[in-house]
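Risk register update: the risk that structure generation would not scale has been downgraded. Supporting records follow, first protein first.
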Amino acid sequence: MASSAHVLVIGAATSDVKGRARKPLQLGTSVPGEITVSFGGVGRNVAENLARIGQPTILLSAVGRDPLGAQILERTASAGVDISKVIISPDHHSSAYVALLDDAGSKVFAVDEMAAVSVVTPSYIQSHRALFRDACMLVLDANLSPQALSSAISMAKRNNVPVAVDPASPTLAPKLKKHLSDLFVIRLNTSEAEVLCGHPIHGRTEAMLAAQQLVAQGVGIAVITLAEEGLCYASSQARGYIPAIRCEVIDYTGAGDALTAAVVYGLVSGFPIDEAMRLGVSAATLTLRCPDTVCPDLSLERLYDQLVI
């Protein structure tokens, strides 16, 4: 069963526009494909996934006072996330993410505009300090400013709340370097791990060594995803590898966020690390098969239906 205490998530909430080509991309011209609009932002995605699998979840974020912001909040609330503390800013329009996917569903280029996240300030976080006292875990994404990240992590430490972080991208990962010793769990792909570890990572063996390196730097549990190869994880007491579940990929977007959410769910529910990782792989697989950034029919039952034994 999920923890009855809430998970507190602080991060970005966006609209996602994704174009997937049906033929090889050609520079300087268009090719046939499909364009979808859904809702994203790493923090928001993690929050929605958590709520859909039964974990009480509160989101701290910001949207603009515009139709997109209203739609983002409606979708997030309909999944069961508590959005009552999200800022609706009259000074910014809602954040957005635009991605171009190739005919295999892999991201080729992406552009994001996250100015609205700037209103998630240390003072805003401090004003909701009561939410930290009752939280079973804090989840952050690195779209937050360095000051907001520091404030949230400090508040979690004062309240003995474990911290989970998703870097969101290699360009944002450097913000986390000084906080590694404060993190209970970090979930990152190989590109993000290369930034934090300071060297290239090729294949499963090097990923495992990188996870152990992060643990040696103070991280409680380091999870490094390897796309179609699965994931490696390490802690001070265990390490392991979980293979990917083979499936037809519709869209890679959001798979890592689903994995993060399911791992967090498993850990706050008291599952062994290995089982939490298997739940994560299952959640990622369901999301890979779905055109939406968050699978709308995600549930704990569906996760267990395809769990890697």
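Supporting record for the second protein:
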Amino acid sequence: MGEPRTIVVTGAAGPAGRALGTQLAQRSDVRAIGVDLAPRAVPGFERVDAVPAADDPAYDHATLELVRRHGADLLVPSVSEELAHLAVLAEAAGLTGTVVVSPPGPTATAGDKLLTMLALARQGVEVPRHAVADVLHSAAQALDWASGPVVVKPRVARGGRGVHVVEDAHDPVWATLDASWIVQSFAPGQEYCPQVYRSPKTGEMQVVVLEKTGRKQGRVGNATTVTRLAEGEAADVAAVARATTEALGLVGPLDMDVRRRGDGTPVVLEVNARFGAVSASAPELLDAVLGEWPA
């Protein structure tokens, strides 16, 4: 057996990073290093170093330096806000095979929830009715527009941050919204978080459908508990996850939110072009990454 490969995971102290640490701890063929804005000991990682935020001018040099310093075979990002910039950096610095990220265009589209909705709708993938928040001038207008409750969320965010269900025509949240927010009609049915891996070499896909059985914010938000569905269950959800991946041109590990409308039709709420917080329930994604990357 050769020397273990060195895997650097960003956002190691966050939910997605911790999920990866749990899985990496069970492998003898890798050496796992974590980095985080607020470094602390995280199970599964040999160490966790400090790094600048993605919007810090020091980010580029610091990222390239940590790859060099640790002799990283793979850099696995788990922070949504850094993905679009990191995809460009990886291409510019000749690290596209080392950084586990989709190409810049698809990554940027997936990183903005409005752009995601526009791209999917244009290609016939089912999504909720959607609009930029500032074109709807009041909660009452939004409820009328959607013929029912709506969800508001930041266009660029992660982990359910800022997600809010609006049902009251006088909801005060509306006074805080601008064009950096998106409005979606609320899909009241069962919610899922499909875990997808698409090979950057062959384009082949693996899809694991996880059903959300608990959510951080009740009806919306990150999954606190999930149930892995058997292959063939919720086949329509798996199909929409595949269609979404192809429509956006994404590769590597993906984490999606899909919910059913009142008539049962699954609609895509958002796409995370990275490992998600529940990736430990679909360990084949990490197996696929370690089997194919560097790409």
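The CA atoms of residues 22 and 44 lie 6 Å apart. On this basis the risk owner (M.S.) recommends closing the item.
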